[in-house]
Amino acid sequence: MQEIKGGVTAPAGFLAAGVHANIKGKGGTKKDVAVLFSRVPCAAAGVYTTNKVKAAPVTLSQQRTVSGKLQALVINSGNANACTGEQGMRDAEEMAVLAAKGLGLEPGAVAVASTGVIGVPLPMDRVKAGIAQAATAVTPDGGQAAAEAIMTTDTYDKQIALQFELGGATVTIGAMAKGSGMIHPNMATMLAFVTTDADVDAGALHVALKAATEKSFNMITVDGDTSTNDMLIALANGLARNPKVVLGSTLYDAFAAALEQVLIHLAKEIARDGEGATKLMEMRVQGAPSVADARKAAKAVCGSMLTKAAVFGEDANWGRVLCALGYSGAEFDPAKVDLWLGDLPMMKAGTPLPFDEAAAAAVLKEKVVVFTADLHSGAAEATAWGCDLTYDYVKINGSYRT
Q1: Model-level pTM?
Q2: Can you list the alpha helix ranges (DSSP code H) found in 240-286?
Q3: Annotated active-site residue in 153, 189, 226, 390
Q4: Nearest to 394 by CA among 271, 277, 220
Q5: In contact, 87 and 127? CB cutoff 8 Å
Q6: Would residue 189 show up in a list of annotated catalytic residues for this protein?
Q7: What are the phi and psi torsion angles at 132 (to 5°)?
């Protein structure tokens, strides 16, 4: 696989735009409306937040991806259109209508996504103007602008594109995501959009997307909050002309592996860019009795506020890792656990080992801090990602609305 530039517009037939519509009403020049469009209809699949409180665009897009067919997305940042009642649903539907009109599509071919402040009605006059501008500005080079337009507290845009051979054809997968806070497993406060010119059956696309999500976005946590607006949508337009990818085929396995690589990259970027974060945390669990146990254990450590604080303070307080493993719900025998901080062994068979504090401090100064635990209770493994907990996280979220 080869990484290339272009993000969501790297695959053939995809165009995008990102524009400034001043949705927050505070002026500036930040882009906050994006439109993503395929020249031809696409197979579509989506994964959405597990929060019972769902934003209007989530409800609308869930309904529209059931058909397995879409051709465009319209996205805004700065306002989540969540907890906005019936008006919120009307506004989400109008966003789709406006985008469809500008692109020459039927409204049902357009999915909608929003991110930002909860509980505030959309300023539809500004949203309308932004959509009209973006829909007429889509270009094959618009991936960068679209990725910038979906950001909220992100400090940088998150994109990737991979190109590879599939059934004798050159296929590309492009993707963009946003997410920095309100991030927790079972989809996080994040939006992510995947495009591909591969010819993929909609059912196969859904299965591959769900499986890749379990290993990527559902294995990250920043602060333990699961959002009202989480959404991941994939569009496949078939313009690569490869033999159709269907479940059970070798082509499916190859496509699913590439998709997984794309989503893991974006998931790690979201965790790395956690609000106020200075370090990416990675927790590797091996020797678990089941994948479910491995995932529980790994996510518990990355979600542990005490562990996150210790990583920020560069304090080798590894007992916090064992504590999190213990309350994770994973099945294991504490007397069998081995633990490493980076390459430094900290525990063997449940017994602490002497270690060099200076060497441990050096590991904790790195931008990526890795813990590894071998539970010696089976053959399953999993990896989770998170970030350290800093003073700036409180500053950011103490004044997010104002």
Answers
A1: 0.90
A2: 250-272
A3: 189
A4: 277
A5: no
A6: yes
A7: -60, -40
